[in-house]
Amino acid sequence: MNIKIKDNLKNIISDNNMSVRELETKSGLKPSSVQNILNGRSKKPSSHTLDAICQFFNCTIEDLIGAESPELVEYYRSKKEKIEAPLEGTLLLDTVSTIIETIYKERINTSLEKTIPIIKEVYKYSKGKNSKKADKDFAQWVLLKKLL
User: Fold this and answer.
1) What is the DSSP string of 7-69?
2) How many Cβ atoms from other residues are within 10 Å of residue 128's Cβ?
3) Rounded to whole angstroms, how far apart are CA atoms 73 and 66?
4) pTM of the predicted protein model
5) How confident is the model at residue 17 (pLDDT cuts 50, 70, 90)?
6) Which of 75-91 are b and which e, b meaning 16 or more Cβ less than 10 Å from the residue's Cβ?
7) CB count, 10 Å around CB of 30?
8) How far are the Cα atoms of 43, 83, 96, 125 from residue 132, in angstroms, in the given order?
9) Which listed CATH number (3.90.1200.10, 3.40.50.360, 3.40.190.10, 1.10.260.40) goes with 3-83?
10) Domains of the chain, residue spans
11) How far apart, in whole angstroms, are the C-alpha atoms of residue 105 and residue 17?
């Protein structure tokens, strides 16, 4: 793995007075995903992980990887383009409705900042199953796991 990613990530986290755990939680990443990068256990972080970090800190992939690694930047950009697909409005609407219904049903106290990453996760999961509807069981599981 590019040592620059570890160094840049440490600096970005430090500059924002944030803990690794807080970054993982607030950006919707799996526990230990950032810690694994910093400890060198993740030799090739996924484009999803790097993209979530960049979106959270409002930085570019170059900021994270280092502008002197153009081939690595291009690799992650090409991976991201393959992941991104046209938005499916019906699925997105159903996902938001499912999440809101579950929040009210389970009486979960949350915020928009905590809910948006969950909506994204449930949307991507349901889309990956080629479904036109949100997976209600998965939505409930994610909400309870991340917010309670």
Assistant:
1) HHHHHHHHHTT--HHHHHHHTTPPTTHHHHHHHT--SS--HHHHHHHHHHHT--HHHHH-TT-
2) 9
3) 8
4) 0.52
5) very high
6) ebeeeeeeeeeeeeeeb
7) 12
8) 35, 18, 13, 11
9) 1.10.260.40
10) 3-83, 89-147
11) 35
